[in-house]
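Hey, can you fold this one?
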Amino acid sequence: MIILETSRLTLKTIEKEDSQVLHDLIFSNEDTMKYTFGEKAFTLEESKKFIYKNFCKNNAIVGLAPLFEKASGQLVGLAGILKSDDLGKNQYEFGFIIAQEFRRKGYAQEVAQSELTFIKRRLKQNKAFALVHKDNVASKNLLEKLGMTFHKNINSKDRGQREVYTKGV
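Sure. Predicted structure:
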């Protein structure tokens, strides 16, 4: 099921074969993972557990999902909206991870902008949040480019210290 689309990207619910590709492109990459979920690369088993726990299933629209390039059909990363216990009741954060070989094509900005619209229109929220590692300069720059501002520091139970960015949508 398609969750959201941009001019070049499609975010859709996960298929069984996507797990291995996500592990190879994202979860096993030490450089990518140091800024994201747990700050270390995952084993294949850890990747599968993470996917099962956090990815959209069936007709769900909240959760993470694989992100595909429309032109080639290639899986280029992951993105999604998560209900965030770290931010309080009924608060949502959005996120994205673009695999290293697909960066610098504007995909992160494209999917992030679409996620902000999704939070406003589909989830009927008036505020969006993003959690970012303090050393992830590229993501912080993108969030600021999208009009988000630093809100506070938190200690996420699953991801450690994070900076919270927010924007009214």
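The beta strands are 2-5, 9-12, 63-69, 75-83, 92-98, 127-132, 149-156, 160-168. Let me know if you want another pass with a different chain boundary.
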